[in-house]
Amino acid sequence: MIDLPVEHFHALDTLESVVHGFVLRVPGLDVRTDREAALRRLDAFHELARRNFGPRQVRLAEQIHGNSVAVVTVDSPAKTAGVDGLITCDPDVLLGIHVADCCAIFLVDPKQQVIGLVHSGKKGTALNIVGAALKAMSTEFGTDPHQVIAQLSPCIRPPHYEVDFAADIIQDLKRSGVNSVFDSGENTGADLGKFYSYRMERGRTGRMLALLALKREATGGGGRT
Questions:
Q1: Could you give the CA distance from residue 124 to residue 130 in angstroms, rounded to a whole number?
Q2: For 135-176, how does the pLDDT look when each residue is reduced to its tens digit (9 = 90+)?
């Protein structure tokens, strides 16, 4: 069995309220095909990563490069149509976003116990989807953006892409009131041994998987999962 490479971010590791992961390129797996076929080939490996989060319900977004955000619970569909962002206060939900050059933005409000996971590339960033997600968190759950911790995943950056949308995402977060913004700084176009890159591999590649869930109190004194 392949040792599944999963990256963790220090800013999120230090939080007591969430668990997270960013599944990297699966070594040796041929994903030189279209998106849906590649995701089918990756699913067994991604399922291994999802199992590490315990018996939670995975909730995904359709990811259409827009700026719509959905509130999801265990009663929501497995994949919400027409959205690129997901928010929840349900600890039985595991949020998931697929990326291959676009950025996955992890949003955590530790005070209100609310999380969000956002897919933002060139188009979504131009539409300020992170701002839309923060507004939804505020409207639905009373989130104060000043309390939010935001983490940017690896994404494509200059000189491998003509637009530095990661810098624009950071500015959008700060304009929305988020003070605690962390960026991995990693360029998916620069390391095809570690990342999938839609641009560098001309669309025939796999997807990384960002995962985020709220921790929950165990009922039998067994700690948090």
A1: 9
A2: 999 999 999 999 999 999 999 999 999 999 999 999 999 999
- The one-letter amino acid code at 47 reads E
- Give residue 125's domain range: 6-214
pLDDT of residue 216: 84
Number of domains the chain is built from: 1
CA atoms of 30 and 20, how far apart (whole Å): 26
Write down the pTM of the prediction. 0.95
| DSSP annotation string for 114-163 | EEEEEEE-HHHHHTTHHHHHHHHHHHHH---GGG-EEEEPPB--TTSSS-
CA–CA dist 96, 38 (Å, integer): 16
| 70 exposure class (CB count in 10 Å sphere: 0-12, 13-18, 19+) | buried
The CATH number linked to 55 is 3.60.140.10
